[in-house]
């Protein structure tokens, strides 16, 4: 979803950044669980171009994902649209399949929103996120973490051994390839970990696709 030249340029900017911080998880900094150097793009105007490029890439991937898994929108939201007689009618998977990209995109943007993007640098033989985890957790007074619907990762480089994203219950390891986008549900069913790279450093961009908050989704309901 992202060309190799763009990925390489992002990697070089990460290497040269003085804004990197120890990688955090939901409860804070625990290097025994996750060891990385991270940069959150939120509040960094100098990285706005990178943020835009990544969001555009993920948006394209999201439309493909929703075509393959239309229940990602239909199941949690019971979406409706006016029927031929003007009365509300529940949307079905066939309805989403019949939408062009413009209409499907409008629906996706109405229901979903992008999360803050985090750039991560895992050093050869040292960095990793070996702790089995999912992306939903309640340690957030605003409940933003409970609005996470899909996780995503864009792999910014390859050419090293291991370093896969490994899913526990699916018994699957996803090997990084430059420019590839990984999308998956955020709940415990897709518990995963980031294996330690061997023979080279690993660079990724990660975030979530969140539901719009209830006060926006159901305003006036």
TrEMBL record:
<dbReference type="GO" id="GO:0016491">
    <property type="term" value="F:oxidoreductase activity"/>
</dbReference>
<dbReference type="Pfam" id="PF13640">
    <property type="entry name" value="2OG-FeII_Oxy_3"/>
</dbReference>
<keyword id="KW-0560">Oxidoreductase</keyword>
<protein>
    <submittedName>
        <fullName>2OG-Fe(II) oxygenase</fullName>
        <ecNumber>1.14.11.-</ecNumber>
    </submittedName>
</protein>
<feature type="domain" description="Prolyl 4-hydroxylase alpha subunit Fe(2+) 2OG dioxygenase">
    <location>
        <begin position="122"/>
        <end position="209"/>
    </location>
</feature>
<dbReference type="InterPro" id="IPR044862">
    <property type="entry name" value="Pro_4_hyd_alph_FE2OG_OXY"/>
</dbReference>
């Amino acid at each position: 979803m992202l060309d190799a030249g763009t990925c390489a340029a992002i990697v070089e900017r990460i290497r040269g950044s003085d804004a990197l911080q120890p990688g955090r998880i939901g409860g804070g900094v625990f290097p025994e669980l996750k060891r990385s150097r991270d940069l959150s793009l939120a509040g960094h105007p100098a990285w706005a171009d990178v943020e835009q490029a990544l969001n555009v890439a993920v948006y394209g991937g999201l439309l493909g994902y929703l075509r393959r898994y239309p229940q990602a929108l239909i199941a949690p939201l019971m979406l409706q649209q006016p029927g031929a007689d003007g009365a509300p009618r529940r949307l079905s998977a066939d309805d989403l399949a019949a939408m062009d990209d413009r209409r499907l995109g409008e629906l996706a943007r109405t229901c979903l929103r992008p999360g803050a993007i985090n750039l991560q640098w895992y050093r050869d033989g040292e960095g990793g996120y070996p702790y089995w985890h999912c992306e939903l957790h309640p340690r957030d007074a605003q409940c933003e973490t409970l609005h996470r619907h899909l996780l995503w990762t864009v792999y910014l480089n390859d050419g090293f051994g291991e370093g896969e994203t490994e899913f526990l219950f699916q018994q699957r390891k996803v090997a990084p390839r430059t420019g590839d986008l990984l999308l998956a549900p955020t709940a415990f069913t897709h518990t995963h970990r980031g294996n330690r790279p061997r023979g080279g450093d690993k660079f990724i961009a990660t975030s979530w696709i969140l539901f719009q908050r209830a006060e926006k989704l159901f305003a006036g309901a």
